[in-house]
Amino acid sequence: MTDVNHVGRLVTWRKSSRCGESGTCVEMASHDQGVLVRDAKDPDGAILFVDRAAWRSFVAGIRTGEFDAL
Fold first, then answer.
1. Does residue 18 lie within any of the structural domains?
2. Which of 26, 31, 62, 67 has the most Cβ atoms closer than 10 angstroms to its Cβ?
3. Any bridge partners for residue 63, and if so which?
4. pLDDT for the residue numbered 5
5. Taking the complete model, does pTM exceed 0.90, yes or no?
């Protein structure tokens, strides 16, 4: 992972429609080299960069229930 805080200000952030009013969600933004992820409650906080291959693997794991027991 790479700290890309300076890049994060130039992208459009999205979060799940299931997030609700609690704000306990993460937001993601597409980046030309991967995906940026941040805490929705702290938009000025740290931003994580995840390369596209790792993001696809993570999303596939969510869809197959790989993380359900965590």
1. no
2. 31
3. none
4. 54
5. no
